[in-house]
Amino acid sequence: MAPRDANWIDGLRGVASFMVVAGHLCTAFVPWLHAPADDPKTAPHLFQLPFFRLCVGGRSAVALFFLITGYVNSIGPIGKSRSGNHDAAFTGIGRSALARSGRLVLPTMVATVFSWFLANTNAYHMTKHVDSTWIRQGWHRQEPTLWSAFTSLVRAEIETWTIGWDDYDGTQWTLHLFLEGSMLVYMIMMATVLVKPKARFIIFGVLYFYFWQLGEGLAVGALKGLNIIVGMTVAELHNHYKDSATTILPAPIPALLIVVGMFMAGFPQDNPQNAHWSHTMAHAMRSMTGKDTDIRRYWDHLGAATVLVGIFFSRNARRVLTSPVFNFLGKVSFPVYLLHNSLIKSVLTWMIYLPSAMNPPRNEKGEQMDLKRGSTMHMLIAIAVFYYILYRMASLWIQYIDPICAKIVNAAVKWATADTPTHGPNGHPIRNGSIEKTVLPA
């Protein structure tokens, strides 16, 4: 795979992580922007309008992460399957499945320890008193004893991967779904390595309709299953078209797909009935899905998937996503995701609410009221500083934490697979997961 083709998906991942952070900032400070208008009779604000609302919405970004998971984890096995190198495909899937857990779990554990340290050094104390409901819900007390602190840490580390909730960082609720999604990719690839591409397209289609009608909660419906399958389908298209993918469609069509996808991805998180355009979308989706399904996740999926397909066929979109800025955003996307909530509850909260905390507002009875945020300019400066600190820390994470985690995971996989047979059933040596035929000297 050419370097540019490898990088555009990383750039898209960087955009998704930036959108997640922006969405959480919106939820914290301007949650009313999640609706398309304040009420059906009120004109919308600029960032409540289609397209503009993507700047402050992060739900479709989560769908992008699952699409990228399906794409990245299947592109190699599909390529080996198409070339007939089935032994290499099976070996690659086996090793990737072993390594994937460590690549997700170890960095997440480190991020939880970071948040645990902040909580138990009372860095989250101010979050209990702020006027932002979302930040206040992320408050965690300073444990009274060292023993209770360590037991709460162990419980948080375990529950992140069992019940999907981390008391020290609620934004990690998606990570066990990403792990499940990766394993879903490997399971599907194990079952389809031996089939021809046309048959695999049919299988993907059947699985897509299965997940569409499932519509049962977050884990198995539109959030995970549909996005994983579309990501794998795009990986199949990549291996089919190779470098000619960006010349298949006339230039306006990929651009139109991206625009339509962005519109669909802007379906509001709250109160779609407050605007005609979102009310129409809600009515249409309810007619196509099962009872009591979360139609927001379906629009998130359709929007993100359409954007991904448009980018896949667009040379210009790929060129933008392979620029140095987007390459950097992609490189630090995972630590940005892991660190942003802890920094919002500490550094950003301090910057925004410190003036009020120095002179806490009180009611007529002398009881302390919620801390008040600073002026709009004060908040904008604080958010700009927060973003700098976040991406600087994420860059340091990539430089120091990631290599340590990678060494641990690689050593564990190497140890676990040390006794893997070095020869296939026909006696030919296996090298790099493939059977290499021995050529006898003349």
TrEMBL record:
Bilayer-crossing residues are 12-31, 51-72, 104-124, 173-195, 207-235, 247-267, 334-354, 375-398
The reply to whether Acyltransferase figures as a keyword in the UniProt entry is: yes
Instruction: Return the Pfam families for the record.
Output: Acyl_transf_3
Q: Which GO terms describe its molecular function?
A: acyltransferase activity, transferring groups other than amino-acyl groups
The record's listing under InterPro entries reads: Acyl_transf_3_dom (IPR002656), Acyltransferase_3 (IPR050879)
The residues covered by the Acyltransferase domain are 7-354
Does the keyword Iron belong to this entry?
A: no
Which key words are in the record?
A: Acyltransferase, Membrane, Transferase, Transmembrane, Transmembrane helix
Cite the residue spans of the region called Disordered.
423-442
**Protein name, UniProt field:** Acyltransferase family-domain-containing protein
